[in-house]
Design a protein that fits this description.
Number of helices: 17
Radius of gyration: 20 Å
CATH topology: Growth Hormone, Chain: A
Largest sheet: none
């Protein structure tokens, strides 16, 4: 049977190249927002608790906004159309950070930008996972290319901040979203949302979503991945601030982030055969175990030389668990519910659990400084327990 992708002729660049370029475009934004938004908000007078609140709101609401936006996106003919709309909206939201006068304006500006941008990732992952399978390429190549762009963006911003005011952070993030919207229109393959061209009505799309949530193995998989990924919250929000307090320069902070993401890229590009041999369940266990070690050690403010090998554990704490969750969700969800399934996974793994941890991270930072990492080490420990349980259950339920 032909798929919607099979029926659509795509002249020009090969699919793999187009997807690599698109991932690179969208990660130009997160490559600056993730490591440096705390720096920008701090420069605008926000406290640790206020920064935690601003960053947490879109994450806490993502279990609701993520599935709703995914079901909305499935109402279009082509998968790339809602991506264009979402990226334009995200750019406008982030631009609001430049004119926000106080906390209560920063919250909605960041909410709009972050919510819309984060919805693009599960939508493009659906296309990339399917094309990787049908066209026989490694999903990790385009995703790793995006991470390479993340490295380039955060290294560039680290250098720029040595002579420019933190305002440049918000300008870059907004501009990168508009670049991403253009890339979505020009580069994303014109794949149909529904293979036969017939759109199920909205009630049918919501029915598929509810059926997913009644699948206990599916729920266990997304909760486990959520705990492991959510354990990155303190690091995402406050690592740059803590390292600066240790006397580490802005360019070196960019290098440290770059080392972590470079390890992630190498993992995605070269270890796909290992994932296939081990299976996603073992990869979740690997990621959770590395997270317990990494965040426990960060609580004791290791010196610069020790931070380099610890940053390389990002390959396991993020990449291993991320790839494992994508593959598990793809196996557990029926094709018609692919977008909502990945949106639910994203809503928990980079949404609700990350949001709760981020909300707690602000007060933890204000009260405990680096010792706040211990709380996220405990989250990773819970994730390890879930990964072990999932591995045992999946021997009988996942073929």
């Amino acid at each position: 049977m032909q798929t919607g992708a099979d029926k659509t002729k795509e002249p020009g660049l090969p699919t793999l190249v187009r997807l690599c370029l698109f991932y690179a475009a969208i990660y130009l934004s997160s490559g600056v927002s993730l490591p440096y938004i705390g720096t920008y908000l701090r420069s605008r007078g926000m406290t640790g608790g206020e920064i935690g609140l601003i960053l947490a709101v879109p994450l806490l609401l993502k279990p609701f906004t993520g599935p709703v936006l995914a079901v909305w996106a499935d109402g279009f003919t082509l998968r790339r159309t809602p991506m264009v709309v979402l990226l334009v909206g995200a750019g406008l939201g982030y631009a609001g950070l430049l004119i926000a006068p106080n906390l209560w304006w920063f919250i909605p500006a960041w909410f709009v930008g972050q919510t819309l941008l984060s919805t693009v990732s599960p939508l493009i992952d659906v296309i990339t996972l399917r094309r990787a399978r049908t066209e026989s390429f490694n999903y990790g190549i385009p995703r790793g290319t995006g991470s390479s762009a993340f490295i380039a963006a955060n290294l560039a911003m680290g250098a720029i901040l040595t002579f420019a005011a933190p305002t440049i952070i918000a300008i870059w993030i907004a501009a990168a979203c508009f670049i991403g919207a253009t890339a979505a229109a020009l580069l994303v393959p014109p794949e149909r949302v529904h293979a036969e061209g017939a759109k199920p009505d909205r009630s049918e799309r919501w029915k598929g979503l509810s059926e997913l949530l009644r699948n206990r193995t599916f729920v266990l998989a997304v909760v486990t991945a959520g705990l492991i990924q959510g354990a990155h919250a303190f690091y995402y929000g406050f690592s740059a601030i803590l390292w600066r307090k240790q006397g580490i320069s802005e360019p070196m902070i960019g290098v440290l982030w770059g080392v972590g993401v470079a390890a992630e890229v190498g993992f995605m590009w070269f270890l796909e055969p290992l994932r296939r041999r081990w299976g996603p369940e073992r990869f979740l266990i690997l990621g959770a175990s590395a997270a317990v070690i990494r965040w426990s050690l960060y609580a004791f403010e290791p010196p610069l030389w020790a931070l380099f090998p610890l940053q390389m554990l990002h390959a396991m704490t993020f990449a291993a668990s991320f790839l494992a969750s994508l593959r598990l969700i793809e196996k557990l969800a029926p094709p018609a519910a692919a977008s909502p399934a990945q949106a639910i996974n994203s809503a928990l793994s980079s949404g609700f659990t990350l949001g709760i941890a981020t909300l707690a991270s602000g007060p933890l930072f204000d009260a405990l400084g680096a010792k706040g990492y211990l709380a996220t080490a405990f989250m990773a420990l819970l994730g390890l327990g879930g990964a072990i349980l999932l591995s045992r259950r999946s021997r009988h339920q996942i073929v």
